[in-house]
Amino acid sequence: MTLIEGLNVASKLRLKGRKMESCKGSFEDILMEAVDEGFSSLGGSCKQTIYFRLEDCYKIGKHEIPYRIGDFVDVIEQIFGLGAKVIEVRIMQALHGKVRSFRYFPDQEELSLKDYIESLRHFLLS
User: Fold this and answer.
1) Three-state SS letters, the chain
2) pLDDT tens across 2-58, in order?
3) Which residues are within 8 A (CB) of 63 and not within 5 positions of it... i.e. 6 or more apart?
4) In which domain, by residue range, is 60 found?
5) What is the number of structural domains in the chain?
6) Which long-range contacts (C-beta less than 8 Å, at least 24 apart) are formed by 13-17?
């Protein structure tokens, strides 16, 4: 669930009450499935448009997202502005559903998709 208060965006994940899946597949596969789910929440044609813009305008192919997380997050924030937080939270919710045992405790006050994904990568690879 995302709360937007004025121009200050506070993101909160509602993680209880969802049926969780087990962690299967590689980090890259898990991330790409979660990104797909996050984009799909906007509708199928929107998802395809986002992937097209990532590739055409920003030179980030769909298959490159797991290797260019910083660039990916920056572009999503450029395209959607404050609305990017909604997509980022949906991606984090999808990731949490795929890796039930992962717990994320951010160091800073603001929730960051980039930091979340990097922490998840470290968790899965260790």
Assistant:
1) CEEEECCEEEECCCCCCCCCCCCCCCHHHHHHHHHHHHHHCCCHHHHHHHHHHHHHCCCCCHHHHHHCHHHHHHHHHHHHHHHHHHHHHHHHHHHHHHCCCCCCCCCCCCCCHHHHHHHHHHHHHC
2) 333 433 334 444 443 333 344 456 899 999 999 999 999 999 999 999 999 999 999
3) 32
4) 25-125
5) 1
6) 13/89, 13/92, 13/93, 13/96, 13/111, 14/93, 15/93, 15/96
Let me know if residue 12 belongs to a domain.
no
The answer to whether residue 18 sits within a structural domain is no
Burial environment of residue 97 by CB neighbours within 10 A (0 to 12, 13 to 18, 19 or more) = middle
| Number of other CB atoms surrounding residue 49 within 10 Å | 13
Cβ atoms 94, 29 nearer than 8 A: no
